[in-house]
Amino acid sequence: MNQPIERQQIGYDLAGNPVYAAWPAPYGPSSVAQQATQPLQPIKVHPWGAYIAGGCLGVLALTVLVVAIAFVVLGFAILAAVLALAVVALTICLVVLRSMWRDVKKGR
C-alpha cells in the first residue's frame, strides 16, 4: 500500500553520478515553508542614469562650494595680513609723528 516516493532524476554531475530533484511536497496541508513564502513582487525599475547624473551634479556642486569656501577663507587670510601690515605701518607713522611733534614743541 505504501509505496516509497521516488525522486525524478534531472541529470548527472561531473563525476557521472545521477542528480535528483528535490523531494516532492508532502500530501495534505501545505508545509510551513510554503505558507511563509510570499508571492514574488514585480521588479521595480530604477532610473540609474538619473541617479548617476544627480551624483555627478552633487559632486560638482560640492567642489564649487569647497572652492568658494577656500577663496573666502584665503581672502580673509589675505585681508588679515593686509590689515596687520596697515596697523604696523600706522603705528610706525604715529611714533615718528609723535617724535616730530615733540621736536617742534621744544623748538628744535
In words, what does this structure look like?
This protein has 108 residues and is mainly α. It contains two helices and two strands, in the order E-E-H-H. The protein has helices at residues 32-36, 48-106; strands spanning 9-12, 18-20. It has a two-stranded antiparallel ribbon with strand order 1-2. Strand 1 and strand 2 form a beta hairpin. The longest helix has 59 residues, at 48-106. The N and C termini lie far apart (139 Å).
List keywords for this structure.
about 110 residues, mainly alpha, two-stranded antiparallel ribbon, 2 helices, SpdD protein, transmembrane helix
In short:
The chain is mainly alpha-helical and 108 residues long. It has helices at 32-36, 48-106; strands at residues 9-12, 18-20.
SSE map:
Blueprint: E1 9-12, E2 18-20, H1 32-36, H2 48-106
Antiparallel strand pairs: 1-2
Query: What is the total tally of β strands?
Result: 2
- Please report the number of helical segments: 2
What letter string, H or E per element, gives the SSE order?
A: EEHH
Percent of residues in beta strands?
5-15%
| Secondary-structure-derived class | mainly alpha
Main sheet specs: 2 strands, antiparallel
Arrangement of strands in the largest sheet: 1-2
Global outline: rod-shaped
**Uncertain ranges:** none
- The level of helicity is 55-70%
Keywords: Membrane, Transmembrane, Transmembrane helix
Protein name: SpdD protein
